[in-house]
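step=encode ok
step=design start
structure_in=
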């Protein structure tokens, strides 16, 4: 897992730089910079809006004494989407918007549930309780 994370930390910024240079060569450096700022500002606003909606839904479910399991996964997706949108670049912005838009988020949520289920089935994550 660490190797994959390390590879992503190296590869994603390199790809982002290449895409920024490519887009800048077509539309110009000023427009590229403006587009990055616009996606950052709009993304922050959109993430705040979606996050507030997730919190409201979680509060309603907790008041009804329901477990907000779906809402927790929504919250994870919205948080990750907001982080992606704040990172400069077009590829991370694309992933951020995919995680923030409710329709496209549902596909990622299904994958995330499968992944969590596999992790729990394989018991690769455990709880350690220290006894006194």
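sequence_out=
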């Amino acid at each position: 897992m660490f190797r994959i994370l390390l590879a992503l930390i190296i590869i994603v910024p390199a790809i982002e730089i290449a895409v920024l240079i490519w887009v800048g060569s077509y539309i110009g450096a000023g427009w590229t910079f403006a587009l990055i700022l616009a996606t950052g500002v709009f993304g922050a606003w959109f993430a705040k809006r979606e996050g507030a909606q997730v919190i409201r839904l979680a509060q309603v479910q907790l008041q009804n004494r329901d477990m907000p399991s779906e809402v927790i996964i929504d919250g994870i997706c919205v948080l990750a989407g907001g982080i992606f949108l704040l990172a400069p670049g077009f590829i991370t912005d694309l992933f951020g918007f995919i995680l923030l838009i409710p329709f496209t988020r549902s596909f990622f949520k299904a994958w995330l549930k499968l992944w969590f289920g596999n992790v729990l089935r394989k018991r690769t994550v455990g709880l350690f309780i220290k006894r006194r």
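step=design ok
step=annotate ok -> The chain has a mean pLDDT of 87.
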